[in-house]
Task: structure prediction
Amino acid sequence: MKLLVLSVGFSGVEKQVINHLTKLGVNLKVIEMKKFRSVWLYSILSTFRFSFSLKSWIKRAEAKYNDYHASPAAFTMKSRWMSNKAKKELTNYNSILQISGTFSLATLKKSEKFNYYILTDYTKSLRKTEKLTEMKRKWLALEEKLYHSADGIFVPSQYIKDSLINDYAVHKSKSHVIGYGSKFPVQSNLTTRKNILFVGNDFERKGGKNILNVFIKLKQRIKDLELTIVGPRFNPCPGVDGVNYQGQVSCDNALSTIYSKSILFVLHPESEPFGLVFLEAMSHGLPCIGTELDAMPEIISSSGAGRVVPVHDEKALENAIYEIICDDSIREKYSLAGKKAVENFYNWTTVVSKVKATIFDVNVLNGEHSVN
Result:
């Protein structure tokens, strides 16, 4: 079993998929997307201001860089580069797994014969708050061409599959809901600290301000309440009583320790492509609170691992946190359900086994591969 994997190189998902496919006996070659350093240099130089603030400069540069990589020009540039690299490997590999929906081999597939699979956890059409600009129309057209050229599309949630069907006219038989997995094993949580945990690099997009507002109110009712913040490059709330800012934590053991010292996991995002951190929290036995958007109801409500509340509804968020923090029986119910969901579905062995089965459980008919 041989498979060419095309990677963008920044996702923990890629690492897990590649490692578990290798463990399952698949002979892999991985091509990682080129780092277009000229784009990053342009982003840095073009956002410099003489009224110098390093924090503001970094934020502007990161925003500029991310905006470019969400443009049709970047999609086309990356597609061209990766197609050239992949073409050279087709004498040795006739199946390709692309981890990302931000470039395409659709043009290459017109002239070359290979089995083409995509793994993606979001679509541009789901960004409902974005205006339908000409740039977005061009990206959507590139995405649609990508999805229709694929032989199969792996997605972590039914929410994404529904978008492929409704927004891109992809036939339902082409997409496969496989879930995602937690990088941590299921473990017991014995802490009694009333510590709420937030994990996310983008504090504002993940609803950090709403959570902080609610925490400050609840602190008046629950004197020993704490809030631990992991992820943001800079402390978003210096000097706030009860807040423990941990910054960016790259060590898995250190992050696992932080989870184990928490009693509840909360994010309140306006959008969340999937939410791997919810699975990490569930594997540590933490009840979860998210919003009613994107895949969060599937992850949290359907598994019974916690609750979702309307976005920007701080009163609903406050009530949910207060009830879960103060009721041991509710916390225990959510904790057990979350751990069970990870054991049975949201683990990488189960997820990647589905990928392997879909790609390699084929019938050979007249020298062609067709998925059962």
Summary: Residues 231 and 250 are 9 Å apart (CA to CA).
